[in-house]
Amino acid sequence: MTERFDVAIVGYGPVGQLLAILLGQRGWRVGVFEKQPAAYPLPRAVHFDHEIGRILQAAGIADEVRGRTESSDVYEWRNATGATLLRFESRAAGLSGWPDANMFAQPEIERLLDQRARTIPTVVVRRGGEVVGIDADAAGVRLTIAAADGARDDVFAQYVVGCDGANSFVRGALGATVTDLGFFFDWLIVDVLPNAPKVWRPLNVQVCDPVRPTTLVSGGPGRRRWEFMRLPGEELDELNRAEAAWRLLAPWDVTPENARLERHVVYRFQARWVDTWRKGRLLLAGDAAHQMPPFAGQGMCSGLRDAANLAWKLDLILGGTCSETLLDTYATERIPHVSAIIDFSMALGKVICIADPVEAAARDAVMVSATESGQQSTPPPPLGIGPGFVRPGDPNGASSSCRLASSTPGRSDSSTTSSDAVGRC
Question: What is the CA radius of gyration of the chain?
Answer without folding.
Answer: 23
